[in-house]
Amino acid sequence: MTTFEELGINPPIQRAILELGFENPMPVQEEVIPLMLNKKSDIIALAQTGTGKTAAYGLPLIQEAHPGTKLPRALVLCPTRELCLQIAGDLNDYARYIDDVKVLPVYGGSSIETQVMALKKGVQIIVATPGRLIDLIDRKAAKLSDVTRVILDEADEMLNMGFLDSINAILAQVPDGRNTLLFSATMPQEIVGISRRYMTNPLEVTIGNRNAGAENVKHLCYTVHAKDKYLVLKRIADFNPDIYGIVFCRTRKETQEIADKLIQDGYNADSLHGDLSQPMRDMVMQKFRIRNISLLVATDVAARGLDVNDLTHIINYNLPDDPEVYTHRSGRTGRAGKTGISIAIVNLKEKYLIKQIEKKIQKNFQHVAVPKGREICEKQLFYLIDKMEKVEIDHSEIDTYLPVIFKKLEWLDKEEVIKRFVSLQFNRFLDYYRQATDIKVPDDYGNNREEGSRRDSRRRDRDRGDRGDRSDRGDRSDRGDRSDRADRFERRDRSDRNSRDRGQERSGDYTRMFINAGKMDGFNPGSLIEMINSSTTGKKIGIGRIDLMKTFSFFEIESRYAQEITRLLKNKRFGDRKINIGIASERTENEKPEKSKTYSRHKR
Fold it and tell me: Pick from 246, 278, 277, 273: which is nearest to 262 by CA?
């Protein structure tokens, strides 16, 4: 097996990448690194996202950097700020043990003055989005006259985003004798055009089949009635307890609607689309990266250049019209040698797209049945048992309590303890799926393949879908702790909720609170729960209904904690806003300017 030393990587860089977990080169690295270090050829590398292409070009760039020079010698162009920051971060990691090599990320949405100052001090490598680099060139702050190597990363994505003119303008500023490397997942005609115009006898390196999907990805298809798509999405999430993925929708409106429904039903979800401000986008992405969010609902445009490791699933709530877009979507999972699953939820009108995609990715979809309630319950139960078997026990903390516990439970035998444990965690969960009718699958003529009422299935899923603890925004190292799942499907007494007096305790257990942060501030249920978690470490505080308004919100909290939460959160800050919080009064209730969005949940 080839080593990085055999590829020509020097010892300081080998030390850095060994600490990063690199053991042996990946195929694209084995192909590209020798070509960059020895032959100096122009290269077209066709490789899916996650195949190790950043290190393929990044390691030679660091090794051949000229420490201490004022003007950059290398330029990396990429489509989005997220990818720009990630590439720059990776390059800095590779250069950990090399002095005076400076890598500057250049992107929109950040202070251009700061970037100008950094360029004046001198950098060796620029990683840039095309739009911001053009701005810096126009200001005569970015000088590319000494650039000898240009990398176009995610070239097809840059073209999809309309950067062709900017790329042409940038390359016109770079000396003709440069060395150009183009990395792309697909090879559209525009890429061919760039290669003919700006590259000299480029060598083509193809990892896998050209324009094919990632090799480690399994492709599944659920064919259902269009009106059942959301219920199927929920069942997919429930059937995969450790899910960590992206749900792709067509439009911004649908993206927000699906995310809102998932949040309302208690899943750790959020949206990513073009209507979000950059600070909101950054906040959502940070939560997703640290897995406080397990399902990110996104449009293709918003997710371009998004690079997140270890995704287990890609879910196509709507299939794209262009099969190449599906290739990009599915390539976000099954990366770095790991396996992944790409799921398509289609109705009869979309079935023709499946054939087109199969032809493009040179793989067949596996057509599968929607998971039944019993199957989901078994999956969840065994997931919990598996977690229980592997849980670490802090004997110093728990052993002192064991004599009392053993005394309390001595009248129960082992079998009874296990039954009660499972019942405690899953009575409501089991009841929900036991009574929910299986979702019917249509035949080629739109008829159900099984007898039963699809409408009853939708109604029961909706009425019993009040789920709890997936909204907990605390530590997600064990995403979706099933010890808290017992409350996910709690059916609230609606007559009690509708008849209670505003601002008073609900059934003596909950108090309705007011907080001066709302949707215009970017405030959402996750923000509230995260704020409470960080202020009450170690406590399990029940949170009930959350009503989001434009500039303020209401929420229910266990009455015994109402005064404590008021004291702890008062004068905290959410963004630029100083928090004001208190028990909701009749006056504040009457100030509602619009119908609120309601999120029923239970934090434990």
Answer: 246
Query: Does CATH number 3.40.50.620 belong to domain 217-372?
Result: no
pLDDT digits (tens, 9 = 90+) for 173-195: 999 888 999 988 777 777 778 78
Q: Which fold has domain 4-206?
A: Rossmann fold (3.40.50)
217-223 vs 366-367, strand pairing mode: parallel
pLDDT digits (tens, 9 = 90+) for 95-104: 999 988 999 9
d(CA 91, CA 127): 10
Residues near 129 by Cβ (< 8 Å), separated by ≥ 6?
Answer: 77, 78, 79, 80, 81, 84, 106, 107, 108
Q: What is the pLDDT of residue 538?
A: 62
Q: Where are the alpha helices (DSSP H) in 199-251?
A: 229-239
Equal fold, 4-206 vs 217-372: yes
Alpha-carbon torsion angle 297, 299, 300, 303, nearest 10: -60
Q: What is the 3-state secondary structure (H, E, C) of 543-571?
A: EEEEEECCCCEEEEEEHHHHHHHHHHHCC
Which pairs from 450-457 meet CB under 8 Å and 24+ separation? 454/225, 454/227, 454/228, 457/228, 457/231
Residue 291 phi/psi, 5° resolution?
A: 70, 25
DSSP for 390-404? Answer: H----HHHHGGGHHH
Q: Per DSSP, what are the bridge partners of residue 204?
A: 44
How does pLDDT run across 517-548, given as a tens digit for each residue?
888 888 888 788 878 887 876 677 878 888 88
Name the region of 67 (left: φ>0; alpha: ψ -120 to 50; beta: rest).
Answer: beta
If one counts every other C-beta atom within 10 angstroms of the C-beta of residue 36, the result is: 23
Provide the mean pLDDT of the chain.
79
Domain boundaries, the chain: 4-206, 217-372, 494-600
| C-alpha closest to that of 56 among 92, 123, 9, 125 | 9
Residue 50: Cβ within 10 Å count: 25
User: Pick from 295, 279, 312: which is nearest to 577 by CA?
Assistant: 279
Q: Three-class SS of residue 190?
A: helix
Alpha-carbon span 9 to 24, nearest angstrom: 12
Contact 81, 115 (CB under 8 A): no
d(CA 281, CA 158): 20
Instruction: Give me the DSSP letters along 38-84.
Output: II---EEEE--TTSSHHHHHHHHHHHT--TT-SS-SEEEE-SSHHHH
Measured CA to CA, the distance from residue 562 to residue 542 in angstroms comes to 11
CATH class belonging to 494-600 = alpha beta
Phi, then psi, of 223 in degrees rounded to 5: -100, 120
Q: Which residues of 335-346 are buried (b: 16+ CB within 10 A; e: fewer)?
A: beeeebbbbbbb
**455/208 Cα distance (integer angstroms):** 45
The Cα–Cα gap between 407 and 455 comes to 50
Give the burial class of 529: count Cβ atoms within 10 A of its Cβ; 0-12 exposed, 13-18 middle, 19 or more buried: buried
What type of residue sits at position 326?
Y
pLDDT at 600 over 50: no
Torsion angles phi and psi, residue 405, rounded to 5: -65, -45
Output the CA–CA distances (angstroms, integers) from residue 388 to 381, 382, 392, 482, in the order listed.
Answer: 11, 10, 9, 10
